[in-house]
């Protein structure tokens, strides 16, 4: 959402759930990195009811915008209701967020669909499902990318994205600067982001298709800044698992090379960030355990799920899309590959066709 780019985690998209290591398409849905799609170079700016962007906003580079948005989530406590829409589907969640400069804590309660409460402290996450009386404990790796990435030579974001200021608009009663983060090629999506003027906090975000259409969007319908959110209370709630069956899937950090995989050809801008297999506690030959290999260009993320081929489950190679999230599945020798991310279909296919077995 989050994550690679540390916007408020509710605005971030999957790395699909690494603790489970299953591409349960299309059921996986979790906030993590921004994924981007190309806009046509001739796209004209949309028409809004807006004022002129302030001079200080107009001078910001894409790195400066992203840094400001990141810091916005670290400086303010807030309570809000977030509404997400993708196609005909819509969902809503209640969010409590607090940060003391070092620790971030957040509680997210679903208001639609299955009741869930997710509490996060930095990269430690627990999700309570009251109906099933289960609690899933996991660690969500920040991958060490943001904001440190913006200050290192490995930062390729400006090579693949540019920022364009659009204006100012009110969201949930707060004035917000509007900026578009536009890709420079056709391998990424674009974003239109509303950043609260005083803090930089992201209050609305749209994922844009190639013709400028909105693939999906999320926005606060109500937002209270500097809200009295208690970190101590959230810590107590996070630890209280009485009456719940706690699940803590075990992961093993590894490399694709160690598991016998490589990309024959790199996808421009995307670098490998992490690789995990499911650890069942016994030694397993390379390639026999389900594996998740995560790539990112600093904003967009792609996950490659590889598992042994099962003729009963893996019947047909396919592709699918829900909102901005695309999926491609295919057989690779004696394995089954699912590539998942918020990038265009052609980007996923480049990953899928490049993956090959080395042993």
Textual characterization of the structure:
It is a single chain. The chain has 359 residues and is mainly β. The protein has two domains: 238 residues, outer membrane lipoprotein receptor (LolB), chain A (Clam), CATH 2.50.20; 107 residues, 2-Layer Sandwich (Phosphorylase Kinase, domain 1). 11% of the residues lie in helices and 40% in strands. The chain contains five helices and 21 strands. The chain has a twelve-stranded mixed β-sheet. A seven-stranded antiparallel β-sheet has the order 13-15-16-17-20-19-18, covered by helices on one side. β7 and β8 form a beta hairpin. It is globular. The two termini are 35 Å apart.
Proportion in β-strands:
35-45%
Q: Describe the sheet with the most strands.
A: 12 strands, mixed
Biggest β-sheet: strands ordered side by side in the sheet: 7-8-9-10-11-1-2-3-4-5-6-12
Provide the succession of SSEs.
HHEEEEEEHEEEEEHEEEEEEEEEHE
Highest CATH level, the class of the largest domain: Mainly Beta
Taking all Cα atoms into account, the compactness measure Rg is 20 Å
What fold name stands as the CATH topology of the largest domain? outer membrane lipoprotein receptor (LolB), chain A
Helix content: 10-25%
- The mean pLDDT is 80
Q: What class, by secondary structure content?
A: mainly beta
Summarize the structure.
The protein is 11% helix and 40% strand. By secondary structure, it is mainly beta. The relative contact order is 0.19.
Top keywords for this entry?
single chain, about 350 residues, mainly beta, outer membrane lipoprotein receptor (LolB), chain A, Phosphorylase Kinase, domain 1, 12-stranded mixed beta sheet, 5 helices, about 10% helix, disordered N terminus
């Amino acid at each position: 959402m989050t994550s690679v780019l540390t916007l408020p985690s509710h605005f971030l998209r999957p790395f699909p759930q690494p603790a489970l290591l299953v591409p349960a398409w299309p059921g996986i849905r979790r906030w993590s990195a921004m994924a981007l799609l190309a806009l046509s170079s001739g796209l004209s700016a949309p028409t809004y009811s807006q004022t002129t962007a302030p001079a200080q906003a107009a001078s910001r580079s894409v790195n400066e915008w992203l840094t400001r948005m990141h810091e916005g989530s670290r400086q303010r406590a807030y309570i809000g209701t977030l509404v997400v829409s993708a196609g005909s589907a819509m969902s809503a969640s209640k969010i409590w967020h607090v940060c003391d400069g070092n620790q971030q804590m957040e509680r997210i309660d679903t208001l639609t669909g299955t009741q869930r409460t997710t509490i996060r402290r930095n990269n430690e996450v627990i999700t309570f499902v009251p109906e099933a009386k289960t609690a899933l404990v996991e660690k969500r790796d920040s991958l060490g990318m943001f904001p440190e990435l913006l200050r290192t030579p490995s930062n390729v974001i400006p090579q693949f994205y540019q920022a364009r200021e659009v204006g100012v608009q009110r969201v949930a009663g707060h004035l917000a600067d509007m900026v578009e983060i536009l890709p420079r090629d056709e391998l990424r999506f674009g974003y239109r982001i509303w950043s609260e003027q005083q803090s930089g906090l992201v209050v609305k975000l749209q994922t844009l298709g190639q013709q400028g259409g909105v693939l999906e969007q999320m926005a606060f319908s109500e937002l209270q800044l500097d809200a009295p959110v208690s970190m101590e209370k959230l810590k107590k709630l996070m630890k209280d698992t009485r009456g719940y069956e706690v699940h803590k899937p075990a992961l093993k950090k590894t490399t694709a090379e160690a598991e016998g995989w490589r990309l024959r050809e790199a996808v421009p801008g995307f670098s490998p960030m992490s690789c995990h297999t499911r650890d069942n506690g016994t030694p397993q030959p390379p390639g026999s355990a389900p594996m998740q290999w995560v790539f990112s260009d600093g904003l967009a993320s792609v996950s490659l799920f590889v598992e042994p081929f099962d003729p009963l489950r893996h019947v047909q190679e396919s592709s699918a899309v829900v909102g901005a999230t695309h999926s491609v599945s295919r057989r690779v020798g004696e394995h089954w590959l699912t590539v998942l991310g918020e990038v265009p279909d052609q980007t996923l296919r480049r990953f899928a066709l490049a993956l090959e077995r080395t042993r």
